Amino acid sequence: MSQRLLIILFLIIGFLSFMYFTHTTPRQADLLLTNATVYTLDPEKPTVQEVAIHNGRIVATGMRGELLGEYQARRIIDLKGKTVVPGLTDGHAHMNGLGELLQSINLVGIGSRAEVVAVVHKRANEMSPGQWIYGRGWDQNLWEGGQFPTAQALDEAAPRNPVILGRIDGHAVWVNSRAMEIAGISLSTPDPQGGRIIRDAGGNATGIFIDKAKPLIEDFFPPQSPDELERSILLASQACVRMGLTEVHDMNDSLEIDVYKKLIGENKLPLRIYAALDGTSSPWMSGKFSRPITGFGNDAKHPSDMLTVRAMKLYMDGALGSRGAALFEEYNDDPGNRGVTYMGEKELEVAVMASAQKGFQACVHAIGDRANHIVLNVYERVLKAMPAGDYRFRIEHVQVLSRDDIRRFKELAVLPSMQPVHCTSDMYWAEARLGPERVKGAYAWRSILDTGTPIIAGSDFPNDDMSPLHGFYAAITRSDKSGYPADGWHGHQKMTREEALKSYTLWPAYGAFQEETKGSIQYGKYADFTVLSKDIMTIPPEEVLQTEIEMTIVGGRIVYAKPPEPTPS
Length: 569
Fold this sequence. Notes:
Elements: H1 3-24, E1 27-34, E2 37-39, E3 47-48, E4 50-54, E5 57-62, E6 71-78, E7 83-86, E8 88-93, H2 95-103, E9 105-106, H3 113-125, E10 133-138, H4 151-157, E11 163-167, E12 172-175, H5 177-183, E13 195-199, E14 205-211, H6 215-218, H7 226-242, E15 245-250, H8 255-265, E16 272-278, H9 282-285, E17 293-296, E18 307-315, H10 345-358, E19 361-366, H11 369-385, E20 394-397, H12 403-412, E21 415-418, H13 420-426, H14 430-438, H15 445-449, E22 456-457, H16 468-477, H17 497-503, H18 506-511, E23 529-532, H19 541-544, E24 549-554, E25 557-561
Parallel strand pairs: 1-6, 2-7, 8-15, 9-10, 10-11, 15-16, 16-18, 18-19, 19-20, 20-21, 21-22
Antiparallel strand pairs: 1-4, 2-3, 4-5, 7-23, 11-12, 12-14, 13-14, 17-18, 23-24, 24-25
Helix pairs in contact: 2-7, 3-4, 7-8, 10-11, 11-12, 13-16
C-alpha cells in the first residue's frame, strides 16, 4: 500500500472515530430543564421544551427528549408542563426604596386619610419620643375629595415624634409640625427651584413638600448606616426574585454600588443589577466614576455579569399625581400650574454631554409633555455634537407626549422606559389632570411601538405594584385587576402579548446594551429564566393575575423556588 493511501486511510478512520465518540459520548451539563413550554424569543426556535445549561450559560435548546439523550446533566428538572420565559427584568426601579418600604409603614392602597393617621398613631405608641416615623405609599387620589392632607392630622397622631410620609410616586412628602420645626420651616422659607411648598391662605406651610422642596425636610432625617443600607438591599433583592425578576435597572444613588460589590463578593446577591448613578451626586460630580463598570462578578470559570454601572440618571420634572409634571399648558384641574422643571435646558445639555463623553448612558426622568420635549431637544443637540456612536439615550416614564414628539424617539434612536402599571393606576384621575384631548398622548404605547421603537417596561417600585406579571397584564389589557374598563382605558394603545413579553425581557436587555448575553433563550446567553405556573401567552388575560412564580433562575442557579404545598394532615 502506498504511503499516500495509508495517510488517507488513517484520516478516514480518525474522522469516523471522531463522529462516533461525538455522537455516543454525552455532553456535560449542570442543569437540564425538560417537559416545559419554553418561549425563547429566538426567531429560529420560538418555542422549545428543553434547555441545557452549563457554566451559567445556555448550551442547547430542543424539543422533548432531544437533549435528554444528548446531555449528561448533574441535575434534571421535569417542569411538568409549566411555562418558561426569558428572565424577567424590571427596567426602572428603586432597590433601596423598596428595602426601606419593607421596613417602614406601608401606606400603599390605604383608602382614607383617617386610616393613614391611625397607622401612624399606632407606630408612635411603639416608639420613643423624638424618634422619626417614616412611611411611604399614600395617595390622596384614593381619598374622598382627592385633596392633599395637612400636618394637623399627623400632629394629633404623633405629637412627640417627627413624621415624614412619602407619597406613592416618591415626588412629595407629608410631614407633621414637629418635622417642620426641626427643619426650620417658617413663613419666610422660599420655594426652591424645581420644588413647591403647599401653603395655606396665610402663606404657612401646610405639611406637603413637592419635588425639590422635599430635601428641606429629608435632609434632617437620620441617614442609613452601612449595615442598614445592606439590609435594605438584601430585603429588596429577595422580594425581587420572589416576583420572578432576574435583573433590575436600579435608578438609585452611588452609595449602593459598594454594597452591591460587597454582596456579590460574598455570593449573596441573587439577581443582576444594571445601575444608573445619580447625575447630581457628589461621587459622580467628583469624578469617582470616570468610566463604566461592566462584567463585575466575573471569574474565569463562571462569568456572571452581576453588576453593570454604565448609566447616569437625571430629573427634568416631577410627577403627574402631585401635579409636578411639566406640561405645556396648565393643569386642567389646577389653573395656573404647569408643573415644575428641575433644571434648565442648558444645564441638562451639559450633564448629558458629560455622561456621553465618559461612556455613560443618559437616563432622564420626564413625565409631562413639556419635560419630554425639552429632553428630546437636548438629546438631539448632543447627538449632533458627539461623534457617531451607539448611545441609546433613554427617557424614563414618558407618560405624556405631544403628538409631534412621538416620532422623534425613532428618529433619534431614543429609548422610552415606561411602566405599564402607571397607566392602570393613574387612569382614574389622569383625564382630570390633562383634559380630554391631551390625555390622548398619555401612556401611548401603541403609538410609540408603531414607529418601530421598542419599549423598556418596568414598575418604578416601590412607587407602584412591583409584580412584572401585573405589569404584563396591564400592558395587554389597560384594565385594572377587576377588569375595568372591559375594553381597556384607551384600549387602542394596548401591547400584544409578544410585545409585552419583549418589553420585560429582550428590550430591557437592549436598553442596557446586553442583548448579546441576555433577554432571550438562545445558545451562549446567560441562563436567566422565570418559570411560571401558567402559560401567560395563551390563557385568558384575567388568569395572568393568578399566575404564580414557580422558580427564578439566574446564571443557571435557582435563586427562588415556590415552597411546596403543605401535606394534608
